[in-house]
Write a structure and sequence with these properties.
This protein has 18 helices and 24 strands. With 501 residues, the chain is α+β, with helices and mostly antiparallel strands.
Length: 501
């Protein structure tokens, strides 16, 4: 039996999971690290922290697993997207990484749009200039820290810095590189036009690989730290959303997933690139060779329910602790006592601004329609329904671009809630499924490693071998009608409030 390692370099910590060829989790380990916020709206992390967490989590998982290092066939890396790692010619880290949620680059986004042209930028990179993407971070360093920019010899994404530490190879994969805003999305290669107009040297960027291709092998030094043997292949891996999609089986035409984590994501597989000319959704290269995906993002999905829990549900938190259960389970029970449509309360989940379909950092959260008849349970249900409506906003664009999924696969923390899955089935008007694994991105990149190691013939074949549907919830006709009425009000609220946000 061969084993595969999937390592996911997240924002709060790095998780490593060891899988067998059937996709069973054998052992795992998680190591956390800090987030630095030098100013309001800034977010940075230390690449050294990621590296220590990676080799420590691999070594810990190996020790727990009891398997031989000789039986590890491959390593896959998933990571938080968009983060900027800069190294000098001697491989010294020049500054802490500016990560995905940093918002300091509004002026640089305007600069990029001016230099490349708004329509041309979308035509090449499939997206408008966004503060979260890597290109604007590079331009910020160029504008504000020119002494660092001048020393920069290598530009890497978070997981690709880890690859460099594991293998000594400067490389990236197409899915993660798509979020840099330097990639020609249609042709799956760096855009010389964008690089030239922004004054970024192609020599600072690594070679671009498909996600399941072998990019290098484990060095002796890295192997010793990880408790592995040298020479194990490391594949391209994927950005976190594409990795999670592979781990959810979203690797064939017509397949769509809906993920409720801190943010919410509707993710659709594409066999050919389709670009929204309005820039409301992201089009990226998928972790499946010769495939792409579109992704709609709502900023405050699970975040909204967590905010409500932390501020208004102390009783549930206390009761859950006494009952040794999750407070969200008790909150579900409360929300079920309010009818579909939450007795007329509508919630806009814009606690962190919004991305899809309204690219507006100034958008704010709203409870609309409150009267003396309403209770806390109505507000709680309205929060969950508002998130479902925001995901429907994303889904409508997916359908507008020509995709009509027969079912949607739910994942993330919100995907564990039967009530939230039922809401999604009702508003989407199609069945909502869950699958047999909850390891997401770690499983996804482990399967990519299995393809690179020759255990599986292709990414779809790997997913077919280990991923199966666990449960299905079907839409309720009566609830659909109630949600259609409420959604029409929801859609009218943002245009009515936009100018006063």
């Amino acid at each position: 039996m061969s084993y595969l390692i999937g390592t996911d370099i997240g924002t709060s910590g790095t998780k490593t999971v060891i899988f067998d060829e059937k996709g069973n989790s054998i052992a795992s380990a998680l190591y956390e690290y800090p987030l630095y916020q030098p100013q309001a709206g800034w977010a940075e992390q230390a690449p050294e922290d990621w590296w220590k967490a990676v080799y420590s989590s691999i070594a810990s998982a190996m020790a727990k697993s009891g398997i031989s290092a000789n039986d590890v066939a491959g390593i896959g890396l998933s990571g938080q997207m968009h983060g900027l790692v800069m190294l000098d010619k001697n491989d010294n880290i020049l500054r802490r990484s500016i990560i995905w949620c940093d918002q300091r680059t509004s002026a640089e986004c305007e600069q990029i749009t001016s230099l490349v042209g708004a329509s041309r930028l979308i035509e090449i990179t499939a997206n408008p200039a966004l503060t979260g993407f890597t290109a604007s971070k590079i331009m910020w360093v160029k504008n504000h820290e020119p002494y660092i920019f001048e020393k920069c010899a290598k530009i890497l994404l978070p997981k690709d810095y880890i690859r460099y530490m594991l293998t000594g190879e400067v490389a990236t994969d197409v899915s993660d590189a798509s979020g840099m805003q330097l990639l020609d999305i249609k042709n799956r290669c760096w855009s010389d036009e964008v690089l030239s107009k922004l004054g970024i040297s192609r020599d600072t960027l690594g070679k671009v690989y498909e996600s399941c291709a072998v990019t290098g092998t484990l060095t002796e030094k890295a192997a010793a730290l990880c408790g592995l043997k040298a020479g194990i292949p490391v594949v391209g891996g994927a950005g976190d959303q594409a990795a999670s999609a592979v781990g959810n089986g979203i690797v064939k035409g017509g397949r769509v997933s809906s993920t409720i984590g801190t943010s919410g994501v509707v993710f659709a597989h594409l066999d050919a690139p389709r670009i929204d000319p309005k820039g409301r959704v992201h089009t990226f290269c998928h972790a499946v060779p010769n495939a792409w995906h579109i992704m709609g993002v709502t900023q405050g999905a699970g975040l909204s329910l967590k905010w409500f829990r932390d501020n208004f549900c102390q009783a549930e938190k206390t009761a859950a602790e006494m009952m040794d259960t999750d407070p969200y389970v008790l909150m579900d029970k409360q929300a079920e006592l309010s009818p579909c449509g939450a007795n007329g309360v509508i919630y806009l989940p814009y606690l962190m601004g919004e991305r899809t379909p309204h690219l507006d950092p100034n958008a704010k959260g709203v409870f609309f329609g409150l009267s003396a008849v309403h209770t806390r349970r109505d507000m709680l249900r309205a929060v969950m329904e508002g998130v479902a409506y925001s995901l429907l906003d994303c889904m409508e664009i997916v359908r507008e671009l020509g995709m009509a999924p027969s079912a949607v696969r739910a994942s993330g923390g919100g995907g564990k809630s039967p009530l939230w899955r039922q809401m999604q089935a009702d508003v989407f008007g199609c069945p909502v499924e869950t699958v047999n694994s909850s390891e997401g991105g770690a499983l996804g990149v482990a399967l990519l490693a299995g393809v690179g190691a020759g255990i599986y013939d292709s990414v779809p074949q790997a997913c077919d071998a280990v991923i199966s549907v666990k449960s299905t919830i079907y839409p309720d006709t009566a609830s659909q009608k109630a949600y259609e009425k409420a959604y029409s009000i929801y859609k009218a609220l943002y245009p009515a409030l936009k100018d006063i946000f």
